[in-house]
Amino acid sequence: MLRQVRSLVPFLAGLGLLAGCRFADPEATTTWLFDPATPIAEAVRQNFWYTASLVAPFLILAEALLIYVIFRFRARPERKPASFHENVKLEIFWTLVPAVTLVMIAVPSFQLLRQITHVPADTELEVQVFGHQFFWRYEYPEYGITLSDEPLVLPANKKVALSFSSVDVIHSWWVPAFGFKQDANPGRVATRWVQVKPGYYKGQCAELCGALHGVMWIEVVALPEEAFRQWVLARKRGEAPSIEELRAMLPNPAIAHQEG
Amino acid sequence: MRGDRSKWLLVGLLLLAGFMFGFAFLNVPLFQLFCRALGINLSPNNPAVRPLGEVTAARSVRVAFVASVADRLPLRLQVEEVLQTYRLGTQGRNLYWVENLSSDTVYFRAIHSVVPEDAARKMTLLQCFCFDDITLLPGERRQLPVVYAFSPDLRADVGRITMSYTLYRREPHERTPAR
Amino acid sequence: MAQTIQQPMTFYSRWPKPLAVIADWLTTTDHKKIGIMYLVYSLLMAIVGGAMAGMIRTQLAVPDNTFLRPELYNEILTLHGTIMIFFVAMPALAGFGNYLVPILIGARDMAFPRLNAFSFWLLVPSGILMLASLFVEGGAAAAGWTSYTPLASKQYMATPGVDMWIFSLHLAGLSSILGAVNFIVTTLNMRAPGMRMMEMPLFVWAWFVTATLILVAIPVLSGALTMLLTDRLLGTNFFKISEGGDPLLWQHLFWFFGHPEVYIVILPSFGIISHVLAAFAHKRIFGYPGMVIAIAAIGIVGYLVWAHHMFTTGLSTLSLLLFSAFSMVIAIPTGVKVWSWLATVWGGTIRFTTPMKFALGFVALFILGGMGGIFLANVPLDLSLHDTYFVVGHFHYVFAGGTVVALLAATYFWFPKMTGRFLSEKLGTWVFWLFFLGVLLSFMVMHFLGILGMPRRVYTYRPEFTTLNQLVTAGYGLQLIAGLLLLFDILRTLLRKPARPLPPDPWGVNEVQKTLDWVTASPPPPYNFERTPTPDQWRHAPSAEVAR
Lengths: 260, 179, 548
What we know:
The structure holds 3 protein chains of 3 kinds. Chain B has a domain at 60-169: Sandwich (Ctag/Cox11 (Pfam 04442)), CATH 2.60.370. Chain B is 23% helix and 38% strand. Chain B has helices at residues 2-38, 117-121, and strands at residues 60-69, 75-79, 83-87, 92-100, 106-115, 123-127, 133-136, 141-150, 160-169. Chain B has a 5-stranded mixed sheet. A 4-stranded antiparallel sheet of chain B has the order 2-4-8-6. The radius of gyration of chain B is 22 Å and the shape is flat. Chain C is mostly helical. Chain C has 17 helices and no strands. Chain C is globular. The model of chain C is unreliable at 1-5 and 544-548 (pLDDT under 50). At the A-C interface, α1, α2, α3, β7 and β9 of A face α3, α7, α8, α9 and α10 of C.
């Protein structure tokens, strides 16, 4: 019975593909696990591997025991089945050990949670995000700029406060490389913050919002300070640089989203 | 005998199911109480809002104002100062401007939301246009003042507050439900 | 009370045979026949729901596919979810519950046989209404099985399909509630004289806890659906923002039902797996009291975690912490189940029959699915994983890899009991491997897609996700072949007359197990037992208690 061994094959193949798909294509969506673009995403990535390192022993142990049982305890004419059916000490043990592990998972993640939800007071720009069926509108009230169904442009490496709400149904603003998503609820406001490395990032709406939910894309370009200032001036002059022009303003457009 | 016991049990369990059905509806007021306790979706001058404390600390916070228009209403809603620096315990003031861009009379009301929850809990709205029915004649532009205050016992780590107004359509002669 | 095995005289007794048989099934109050009708209903609906999954996977086989319009795609995904949960998983579990619970506790029937029949027949109009909604003008409900408002409100989804969806779920909910009441009363009042609660087989315990979950959770769904319906049709304002209503109230109410619902479809599966593992390891269940406590604990804590489906809505930090902590707590009793299953087979003499393969496959897949749950309970990670294919992969591991695999184990295990014939072991091996590998492949890859940035409920995707999506579709293909093989085998076996009648215990499991399903004939006579079962038929000898 090679069941369990065989069962690992698609798992490993998947991991290979995962890496392959991600790194073969420079235009692929960047994600918090491989190319975190904000301090939050970086922390989330660490938390993921930390959680995985605590969960993996249980996963491996349980699956390994299952494989062992399958090979070791096959019915054979000469073998008699054991008759034990309780062991209180063992049962207490396997209740307590996972409990302790869960506390170890919970404590750091609760600290990280505060970092994510708490918008610092020293943000340097205010961007208001509004969900529409089926596009995003971004308001920069300090500059009087409105972007409708256009890429979001942010100043790189600066703390930016984002507020989210919706004018129709529930949407969810999600750029995987930023390490969070936030629902845009109608009639309700929520706030988050980002501090993005220079680069080009892709995302999309993550809450079913109607027929065209699947193509409610998000694009973000995080420009270095000077380039961002240029963009604001251009925008105020009434120009609307295209995504190609915006990406050309990045320090190294070809690898910008990988290097950050 | 056993049958009788079963029947009573049946009745009791069905009553429990009926209660849970009612419980869903009980949640409508419960949810509002809960929100009020946590400071979500407060209506102005809510009794749950604490009175102003003494002005002892000179700590300031940033207050950001959000404005949006739902239901495809032909309105423009703007706020005079998007970001205000506000000293805790004092009265803060801001002005919203609403303009009817169409040639029809528009009936609407504003829905109000404040985050974070600790700020919402410790807020007093001395003047607010939230939950008021507003009628705007074609082309009319009107100012809507907001006067607010946050209690000085706001949690020390709250340095920024966001207040949002969203305009929703109302039918002309709808009565405001008693809430 | 005199036990009779003669068919009572009825109005159709003199009718021609085929008509009489049909009339008998239509009017039966026999829990076994009702159980079988539930199972057939579930199988038919599984064909529909599975075909819908096929349409979804066809659409997603390549990006920018035009196989389904975006609107239709959303309708199909909504009905796929709704049908699989309410019309496949729940009726199938209710079917096995109906068939087995009275037998396992040594009863003649359910406590209220006519109510039982009524529960089943409610599902028929319910299912018809649900399927018919696809064909009304404006289309079926398209807001997902969770139907969040305002998307599901009249303003954004005017189609009467949504109202039909609501009515259909009302009927299905009523069916479940009445069924649950029946299960609870049956379990409490109908046990054979002398059978204590702590002697009941785990499947009975699991169904008992499930029934209490149904009784408390489903009425809340019915209440929420009623609010949505009156908002849509009568102009009430439960969820209308401009009138002081709140769409988040829908999410709270829906998940207050929705999370226990997850356990409603997994707990009876736990019971099934315990029976099958013990049977073919030739051992008794390890840690029976612990297993019972774990089932109850999962049921109770399951009520305190609903908001973990709402971590990204902007809940307060305190609520996030509490709901995250409770969600993690569930891992503990769930872990107890897994360790106890492993200890149950440990040291046994395992016979790799088809049901045993499915049961071991269940444990393998359930461990994987459960571990994914820990990542999702961890809020900072959930903020990135929520509403992505990671979640879709996770709950399919638990639904398809858990509930459906357990149902397949149950099908192979109790098919001889129900019909007096075995399904093919040879084909069964194929069904198992195809289904197991299909599930493993499809839903593992979905986890990767979610991590890489593909959200759920989208009708197209960015080109870099093509390969992985094709793997998911390939996995679906394996599951489809498995399903067709099973269907073929069931039909073939039913059409063939068995060579000789099967003994009461055709698997030869009862010298260790001592459950009453293997005491009575295969299939059992009307009213199940020729004589009321006696404690020596289910109670383990005291000597066995001392071992270890």
